[in-house]
Design goal:
The protein is α/β, with parallel strands linked by helices. It has one domain: Metallo-beta-lactamase, Chain A (4-Layer Sandwich). The chain is 19% helix and 30% strand. The chain is built from 7 helices and 15 strands. Helix 6 packs parallel to helix 7. The longest helix is centred in the C-terminal third of the chain and has 11 residues. The protein is globular and about 50 Å long.
């Protein structure tokens, strides 16, 4: 089984009934989490009892991307059988930010920490990462396994590195925090849906999954903005959405 489950889609803070950034990627029994922002851990538990995953990747230290590392830590720390430390791939600052919420439980008792950006072998995946513009150190991520390439921009601004990270990807998950033609004249450390579409087209990605919507945003408009620049399929992420991947060719399709 090869599929991506959306745990959360909001940037900054979660709207009612939603969660902040988070995804669960499953590949032939290997389970990898991409970001764990506010309110994503309860959704993860719907798919992985006791937070039983194989690896975690966190793009940066903002709490809408890493806060729910804290309940994952507690669930594993107090488990009847804790087992081996869980590989955690993250930028500098993530562990210290989450540890500040844990006055008694040491995250390093639970997680085996590897610093991004760098390249790693993570189960069946090759993980490649690159620094992208943001308010704090931020890593964009590319995950490659036989028949599947997935890229994730996280919460970063537009940057030429996106063309390499998402080159030929079966699925490009891109932040679409801003709306309008571009971030010109605004904050270049965040990305608009237009820019997400632009870089999806330049990278030759197969499909574009928009996420990290500012609370209250019109997601229909974000889809239209991205489609103005990207000729492929554009999807707005929704909590609980599942995309499955065909065994041959790696092209994602909505799961039944």
């Amino acid at each position: 089984m090869r599929r991506l489950t959306v745990l959360g889609t909001c940037g900054a803070w979660p709207e009612a009934g939603r969660s902040a950034s988070g995804f669960l990627l499953e590949y032939d029994g290997f389970r990898l989490v991409l970001d764990l922002g506010y309110a994503t851990f309860p959704r993860l538990l719907e798919h992985c009892a006791d937070g039983n995953v194989d690896a975690v990747v966190i793009t940066h230290e903002h709490p809408d991307h890493c806060a729910d590392l804290s309940p994952l830590c507690r669930a594993r720390y107090f488990a009847q059988e804790r087992g081996a430390r869980l590989p955690l791939y993250c930028t500098p600052g993530v562990v210290a930010r989450v540890q500040a919420m844990e006055p008694t439980e040491d995250l390093l008792d639970v997680f085996d920490v590897h610093t991004l950006p760098s390249s790693h072998r993570v189960g069946p995946f090759r993980l490649d990462a690159a620094l992208l513009p943001h308010h704090v150190p931020h890593a964009g991520v590319r995950l490659t396994a036989p028949g599947l390439t997935l890229a994730y921009s996280g919460d970063a601004g537009a940057d030429p590195a996106l063309a390499r990270l998402a080159a030929g990807a079966d699925l490009f998950i891109a932040g679409a925090t801003l709306q309008g033609p571009s971030a010109d004249g605004g904050d270049h450390r965040l990305m608009s849906a237009v820019e997400a579409g632009t870089w999806a087209a330049r990278s030759g990605a197969e499909r574009l999954l928009l996420t990290h919507f500012w609370p209250g945003s019109d997601r229909t408009r974000s889809i239209a903005d991205a489609r103005s620049r990207f000729p492929g399929e554009v999807i707005a992420a929704e909590e609980g959405m599942v995309l499955s991947f065909q065994d041959r060719g790696g092209a994602p399709r909505p799961a039944p």
